[in-house]
Amino acid sequence: MKKFKAVIFDMDGVLVDTENYYSKRRTQFFDQINVSIAHLKPSDFIGGNMKDLWPRILQDQYEPTRAQSYIKQYNDFKAKTPLPYEKLLFEDAHFILEFLKKQQVKLALASSSNRADIERCLSVNHLATYFDAVLSGADFKKSKPDPAIYEAAMATLGVLPHETLVIEDSENGIISAKAAGATVFAISDARFGMNQSKADYRFTSLREIVQILKHPKN
Fold first, then answer.
1. For FRET with 209, which of 5, 57, 113, 200 sits at 20 to 30 Å CA-CA?
2. Is 134 helix (H, G, I), strand (E, B) or coil?
3. Same domain, yes or no, for 71 and 98?
4. What is the distance between the alpha carbons of residues 182 and 154, in angstroms, rounded to a whole number?
5. Domain, as residue range, for 72
6. What percentage of the chain exceeds 90 in pLDDT?
7. Angstrom distances, CA of residue 48 to CA of 5, 138, 145, 187
8. Is the pTM of this model over 0.85?
9. Is 99 part of a structural domain of the chain?
10. What is the DSSP string of 18-67?
């Protein structure tokens, strides 16, 4: 395995085990507004921005004004049901970040979550000081699988695609990172049916990735 100058992390499903919590909260919301999402797969909601999914959610009932109303309701619902990030941190998160910092590898976070949620997650889990750059998909016109967020992260860190490793879990995130030219490691998914076939390698944990990175080949 070659030595990388930078590693860019996705957040949900990579550093924090949020996907199951998101799924339950989302189901509760759609039940509340009496809108069915049974025609969509759980993986359809992972790794992108839900604002892009509303035409598929509402199907022939889709209208921009209706979608905007639901988006506002959903944002209000999320604000009242915040994620307990401090309980969801993967046990190996500090381990891999500490290892990479000691190796003087540049680190960035590139998440589709909004910036307030990202900052809260980093704060309660004491992760903020590890990262040289933090990017939110909410700041981009196009969400993953568009490569913009990863291209911007590499530009901010001052590295080239072949010098960069991205750690992802979702199909959208993997496609985004590959389109940006990075090497992609995926944290294996056994719960949500995500297609991870486009990743360069798949691993069961962050600790397993550290073992590979300890023995780089230039």
1. 113
2. strand
3. no
4. 9
5. 19-80
6. 80
7. 26, 10, 7, 17
8. yes
9. yes
10. -HHHHHHHHHHHHHHTT---TTS-GGGGSSS-GGGTHHHHHGGG--HHHH
